[in-house]
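In the design runs reported in the main text, the only information available to the sequence generator was the tokenized backbone. The following block is the verbatim input for one such run; it is reproduced so that readers can re-run the procedure and compare outputs position by position.
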């Protein structure tokens, strides 16, 4: 007798949105669930990235669930990057050629760090802080950093400053606002935090923006130029100027199908 297949929920992205969707659906339904994610095989807490760099946690400690959790809850994990969504045929294609069909698709692909077209923004030694791969790049960049510049006075910027200073790297912090975070905080509190940042030895430059990033003879970043016309020598630039939705995958057009393997 023909056994009807369970409907298949596919979730792209194993961040907190993707895994929470999977867990809540599993509580209420018996449908097949697959989470596809490129960054890491297992869900980890992005908010803990800084503690890995600072030596307070290992990557293993940032995983809120033991590795057996997923199999026990019948949540299938696929480690790979989705390059195409073919809504006509209800399937997604991965970079390695695999294709996975779905009945329901959830796109939980998070966000990407902003870059605003500054000259030099893609030079070696210039990066954002979002993903595990960014953390790895930061580790690779660290040995050559004698002075760092961070651009953007938000929470990731201040985290990055703390991270670098935990390795005794001096930091200049370019903040567009009159006081740190005064777009969110009342002015008195923003002033207090700005004072606190300075007292902790960060070279905080308020009302200052990035104009340009300059390469050295080896092609690596050697300095930034600020909106005040000042050149600041550095071997690292952290771009922490917010994020935008990561929706590249929904913009791609489906190409011809290859052999389905799942
Ligand atoms: C350093 C840092 C510190 C933070 N600290 C805090 C904090 O203290 N408190 C707080 O509330 N928030 C914090 N945030 C923000 C918080 O981490 C995010 O809001 C949250 O992670 C968003 O979850 P998400 O599931 O929407 O997306 P994400 O966590 O971005 O997960 C999306 C996943 O989808 C994957 N993906 C994207 N496209 C594809 C594709 N085509 N194929 C396969 N996989 C794909 C990505 O690689 C990623 O792993 C912090 C963020 C950062 C970067």
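Verbatim output:
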């Amino acid at each position: 007798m023909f056994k009807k297949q369970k409907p298949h929920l596919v979730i792209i992205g194993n961040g907190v949105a993707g895994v929470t969707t999977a867990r809540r659906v599993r509580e209420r339904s018996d449908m097949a669930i697959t989470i596809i994610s490129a960054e890491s095989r297992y869900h980890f807490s992005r908010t803990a990235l800084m503690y890995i760099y600072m030596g307070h946690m290992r990557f293993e400690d940032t995983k809120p669930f033991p590795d057996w959790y997923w199999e026990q809850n019948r949540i299938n994990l696929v480690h790979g990057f989705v390059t195409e969504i073919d809504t006509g045929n209800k399937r997604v294609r991965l970079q390695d050629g695999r294709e996975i069909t779905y009945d329901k698709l959830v796109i939980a692909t998070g966000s990407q760090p902003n870059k605003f077209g500054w000259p030099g923004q893609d030079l070696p030694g210039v990066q954002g802080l979002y993903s595990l791969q960014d953390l790895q790049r930061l580790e690779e960049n660290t040995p050559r950093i004698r002075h760092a510049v961070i651009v953007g006075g938000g929470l990731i910027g201040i985290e990055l400053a703390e991270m670098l200073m935990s390795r005794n790297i001096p930091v200049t912090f370019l903040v567009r606002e009159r006081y740190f975070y005064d777009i969110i905080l009342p002015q008195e509190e923003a002033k207090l935090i700005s004072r606190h940042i300075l007292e902790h030895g960060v070279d905080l430059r308020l009302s200052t923006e990035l104009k340009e990033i300059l390469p050295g003879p080896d092609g690596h970043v050697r300095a930034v130029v600020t909106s005040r016309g000042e050149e600041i020598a550095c071997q690292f630039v952290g771009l922490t100027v917010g994020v935008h939705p990561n929706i590249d995958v929904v913009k791609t057009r489906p190409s011809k199908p290859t052999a389905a393997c799942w």
